Every structure is written in C-alpha cells, then in structure tokens.
From TrEMBL, chain A:
Keywords attached to this entry: Mitochondrion, Ribonucleoprotein, Ribosomal protein, Transit peptide
Organism (species): Neohortaea acidophila
InterPro entries documented for this protein: Ribosomal_mL40 (IPR019192), Ribosomal_mL40_fung (IPR042831)
Annotated protein name in UniProt: Large ribosomal subunit protein mL40
Record-stated family: Belongs to the mitochondrion-specific ribosomal protein mL40 family.
TrEMBL record, chain B:
Annotated source species: Neohortaea acidophila
Compartments, record wording: Mitochondrion
Lineage start: Eukaryota, Fungi, Dikarya, Ascomycota, Pezizomycotina
InterPro entries to which the protein is assigned, alphabetical: PEBP-like_sf, PEBP_euk
Keywords of this entry: Coiled coil, Mitochondrion, Ribonucleoprotein, Ribosomal protein
Coiled-coil features, chain-numbered ranges: 128-174
Chain positions covered by the region annotation Disordered: 37-63
Protein's name in the database: Large ribosomal subunit protein mL38
Keyword Iron: no
Domain of life: Eukaryota
C-alpha cells in the first residue's frame, strides 16, 4: 500500500518550517521571532507560571505532532469482553505459529541427523560396501590403504558443487524417469 | 466450522424460538457463573415486583435496535413513529447477546481460536498424565536402587525425578495459561491460589512491579547489608496497621504503629510452611559508642503460612508457642533522623520442595519447629537491645524469603506512645555536638604546609 504524501502535512507542520520569503512577510517575521523558544541547556521544565510569555516546549510539540498525526492509528478502545476475545484469538495464533515453528525445527533436525548418519555410513564402508565389522564377520582380511571411506572423502571435497545449476534446482537422480515428465508450466 | 458456529448460535436461536423468555439477569455480569447468590436475589426481586417492560431504562430510539416481537414492533411504530432497525433475527440476536455465556459468543474467529486452544489443552493434559506415568516408573526404579544401595544411580535418578517434577509443573501452567476465563478470573481477583496457574499469574504480576519496588527500597535504604547480608524475596509481604496499608518503606505515624500490624504473606509455591517473623530496627543510637545498634521490635516463630492462608495478625499470635518478643511500638526519639524498621519473613526448615524423595527429607529432617520456650529461657535472643538477626538466622538455620520495610520518625504522638509503652527517654532530645570553628586569626608560626 502506498502511504499518502507528506508534502501537505509538512507545509502545516510546526516542525518543518517552510522558509518564509522575506518580501511581504518581513514584518510578520520580526514580531514572530522573539516568541520562539530556544532550547536551553537545562533539562528541568521551565516555570511557565513565573516566567510570563508564551513558551512552547519542543518535546511536547513533537509528541503531539506524532500522536495526533492522521497516519497514526487511533488507539484501540475495546470493551472487556472484546479485549478478552482479541486476547484469545491472539493466543491461539501465537500457539499455532509456535507449533508450526516447532514442527519445522523437528523436520530440519531429522534431515540433519539422517544426513549425518548417511555420512557416517559412507565413512565406514570400503569399495565393496563392507565395514570393518562385516569383514571380520565374513572372515575377509581388513581393507588396505585408502580404500575405507573413499566415497566419504570424495563427497566432502564437494568438487563441482557450484559449477552446474544451483542446488535448489536440482532433482534427485532416479533410475527411471518421473511419472509425469517435465513440468513446463513451472515458474518461480 | 459450521458445527461450531451452530453450537455458538444455539442459545441465541433458543431466544429467537421462545419469544416468551423473560430476560431477568440483565444486570448480572455475564460470565461469572460462580456468583449464584446475586442471581437468586435478582430472580426474587423480578418476580415480586410488577411486570416491567424489557428494560425500563431503554429509550424508544435505542429499543429500535432490539425489539423483536411483532407486538412490541407495532407498539413502537404506533406510539413513537420509530421503525425497527435491521432484520428481526438480528434484533433478537442483539437483545439476547448479554445472556450468552462468554465462551459461546458467536464470533467465527473467536470460536476457531477457542477450538485451537482447547485442542492444545487436551494435548497438554494428556502430556501431564504421561509425565506422571513416567515419574512413577522412575520412582519405582529409584526405590529398587535404594534397596540395593547403588549410590550413583540413586543420585542420578533423584536429579532426574526433580527435573521431571519441574517439567510437570510447567505443563500444569501451560495447560491453563491460554484460557480467557482463567485470565478474567485472575484479573477480578477471584483466582483460587491452590491452583498452580493462579499462583503463576500472581507471581508474574508481583514480580513485574511490586517486587521491583520492594527490592529498590530495601537496597536504597540499605536494609539488606545492614540487617541481613542478602535477601532474594520470593514471598510477597505487605504490611498494614489497622486498615491502613503501608507502602514498602513508607513513613508511619507513631500513633498508628503503636498497635501491632498485620501482615499479608503471600507465597507463590504450593504447600504449608512455618515461618519466623522478625521486626528489626537497625538505627538505634548508641551514644557511648557514637554509633548505631539494633533493636528487635517483634519476634515470633512457628507461624503457619500457605498460598491460601496468608493473613498474619501480629497481635493475635499464641504467646506460649509462637511469640518470643511481643510488639514494641516503633519510635524515634526527638532530634534523630527517621529510623528504618525491617520486617523479615524467615522460612524454617529446608527451603527445597517438600516433595523431594523420602531419603533426602529424612537426611535433612532439621526440626522445622523452633523451640520457643528454650529461646525465651536463654538470654541470647530474648532481649530486644542489640539483637543481631544474622546470628539468629545462622543459629536456627532459617532462610530469609520475604521482606518489608517501614520507617518511623519523631512526631507529636511519639512522646505519648513511649510513655504508654513505658519506654524511658521520651523527654530526651538528641542534639548534634557543636563543632567550634577554628580561630580566625592564626599564629604566626602556624603555617599551612
């Protein structure tokens, strides 16, 4: 949504004073100037009753300007039941969001651990897909040299990972083509 | 969805179907269902008084929005020339809305939200039951390892059990915290402090403002390092003399503090406990020492406190088994500054939960009851002057859990209060020692260095 233009507001704002042209307004400017309150260094409130003359506090002007600005939404004035109902809805929405976030986190955690387990399995197997325990169980001699975990090492190199299309576009490689071919209508 | 809306609309539909239904409970608050007495009273008055129109205070203009009987519609048109607004169904709905209980109000989003919350509550209750079952299992295995004497596993299981209990308490709060009726009841001050949710809400409310003010007052006025080295208040204490509630650290007139105050001690955790209450003045002038000492204005032990049993009137405690030092009026002699009066609530026995497993409670079975007669007969803590609360707390292994503070000053009533209480020194005025200035003219040989 486009916010309305501030140009008109600025013209009437007490903060952004348009530079008054000195032609016909010079007399006005002369009478206006001594009334202007200059901010002094003390932070205590001026004693308005003792010191005569109109004084404007810039802080109050600022607060009023922003508080009663037409773009500031009006305060919510609700009856008790209305407020309670709003609160109920709000809590339900928060709860729903929390559950959603929790579910996503769990999903991510599951994915992470399955990846971790896959890597761990890769690290332990040799060229024949056998772990050291499998070999001893089968009575084979232990694998020699860099045979164990070769696939794991290659995977960790991540060679050529960034050369092709982005990983987000990748499709998991399967033995057979998909049931419904390529989706030509797909757009991001 | 539609089912819920129908369910929500049902009372309204009933009202539409039964035009003869009298709406008698208009003035009653809509969803405090517990308050039956007021309803009875309204019923009786409405039956005894002559039949009134639906609402005598309603002007014809405003009743145009709610008339829904053909007869009354016709009367409105004929007598006032005002036509009813909207459909008859809508008018009936508006007229009957105050009699719909809060949780049945027919707002779609609200009802959907309630459904979500109820679903969550059901899950939480199931989780509580599951947690209880798990705890039972752990308890049985704990008993087994205790019988075998496996010390490390006993410790581990105890820790596990403690964590599980904590989680159970959290679940109990989570089950009810989203209930709008619970919230409303708490805001009205009708919450039952035996239930964990209301205790939790009260604790949160106390910690959000009152506790902060209290901690600020006791640290700014140095009550904490002066009387006791440290305190972390977990129990809300408020003080009142007669009907007058005293804010934390407020100055109290001496005539008001002549009689013993009453305390409202609100614990936020379950169960009864015994507390000791001590009122200590750390600003007693000691002229010989040119310093200040302590005076105990009140000391009583073995006071039973629970979340629902919070009121303690210091004047009406049992002098045999509870009171060690009865109330002495607060006073500050003339010429002195104000004097602080620290009110301390000290918990007796172990501070940990009373439900910890049996072996630990047997080990820590320190006597919760203080031997009042023994303390009285020994001179150490039965005299008021120079009563050191630190040593008392150490001697009887008490835990400071609550604190309050008020101040006293010399005022026009103090002399009378002191005379009536038989305290000497009401006619004494303290004055600062005059420090004479150095001679204006110095001797020649005296020089600044």
């Amino acid at each position: 949504m486009q916010p309305p233009s501030m140009a008109l507001l600025r013209a009437f704002s007490p903060l952004w004073k348009a530079p008054i042209r000195p032609s016909i307004f010079s007399g006005l400017l002369q009478t206006h100037q001594p009334q202007q309150h200059t901010a002094d260094f003390s932070s205590t409130a001026p004693r308005c009753k003792r010191k005569k003359g109109k004084r404007t506090d810039m802080r109050i002007t600022n607060i009023r300007y922003h508080l009663f600005h037409p773009m500031t939404p009006r305060p919510l004035r609700w009856s008790r039941n209305r407020h309670l109902r709003h609160w109920t809805i709000h809590r339900a929405w928060q709860l729903y969001q929390h559950n959603l976030r929790h579910k996503r986190d769990e999903e991510l955690q599951k994915q992470y651990f399955s990846m971790y387990n896959a890597c761990e399995a890769l690290r332990n197997i040799d060229n024949y897909g056998l772990t050291a325990e499998d070999r001893t169980a089968m009575g084979e001699p232990p694998s020699e040299g860099k045979e164990t975990g070769r696939l794991y090492r290659i995977a960790m190199l991540k060679r050529g990972m960034w050369n092709g299309p982005p990983i987000e576009y990748a499709r998991i490689q399967t033995d057979t083509p998909p049931r419904n071919g390529w989706n030509h209508q797909w757009t991001r | 969805m539609t089912m819920a809306l129908e369910g929500a609309c049902r009372p309204m539909a009933r009202c539409v179907q039964r035009p003869g239904l009298k709406r008698i409970n208009l003035q009653i608050r809509t969803f405090t269902t517990s308050n039956a007495s007021r309803q009875e009273v309204t019923d009786i008055t409405s039956t005894s008084s002559p039949p009134l129109p639906a609402n005598p205070f309603r002007s014809p203009e405003s009743s145009a929005a709610v008339v829904h009987k053909p007869q009354s519609e016709r009367r409105l048109i004929a007598q006032h020339g005002i036509y009813p607004i909207g459909s008859r169904r809508r008018r009936a709905a508006i007229a009957s809305t105050p009699s719909i209980p809060f949780h049945q109000l027919p707002y779609q989003c609200f009802q959907e939200a309630r459904k979500v919350l109820q679903q969550d509550r059901v899950e939480k209750v199931a989780e509580i039951a599951e947690q209880r079952r798990r705890m039972e299992k752990v308890q049985t295995s704990l008993a087994q390892s205790q019988s075998t004497g496996d010390e490390p596993s006993v410790k581990q299981l105890e820790r596990r059990l403690r964590d599980m209990r904590q989680h159970l308490e959290e679940l109990k709060i989570l089950a009810d915290i989203n209930d709008p009726l619970v919230r409303k009841k708490f805001e009205d001050g009708l919450g039952d402090m035996n239930k964990p949710i209301y205790r939790h809400l009260a604790d949160k409310k106390w910690r959000s403002y009152k506790r902060k003010v209290l901690v600020q007052r006791i640290t700014q006025m140095n009550v904490v390092p002066d009387i006791l080295p440290h305190i972390d208040p977990t129990i809300a204490v408020s003080l009142s003399f007669g009907r007058k509630d005293i804010p934390h650290g407020g100055l109290v007139l001496s005539t008001l503090s002549e009689d013993a105050p009453s305390l409202n001690i609100q614990p936020f955790d379950r169960g009864e406990r015994l507390v000791t209450i001590a009122v200590i003045n750390p600003d007693v002038p000691n002229v010989a020492k040119d310093g200040f000492g302590y005076r105990c204005h009140f000391l009583a032990s073995n006071i039973s406190i629970s979340p629902t049993q919070t009121r303690v009137d210091l004047a009406s405690l049992d002098p045999e088994s509870q009171v060690i030092l009865p109330w002495l009026p607060a006073f500050a002699q003339k010429g002195l500054d104000y004097q602080r009066m620290g009110v301390f609530v000290l918990q007796q026995g172990s501070i940990s939960e009373e439900e910890t497993s049996t072996s630990t409670t047997e080990e820590q079975s320190s006597p919760a009851n203080l031997p009042v007669q023994e303390i009285l007969s020994a001179a150490r803590y039965s005299k008021r002057e120079n009563f050191v609360l630190r040593s008392f707390v150490d001697k009887y292994s008490l835990h400071p859990v609550g604190v309050d503070l008020f101040r006293t000053q010399w005022d026009e009533g103090t002399a009378g209060v002191m005379r009536r209480a038989g305290i000497p020194g009401w006619d004494v005025e303290f004055k600062r020692k005059r420090i004479y200035p150095l001679p204006y003219r110095r001797l020649k040989e005296e020089r600044y260095r």
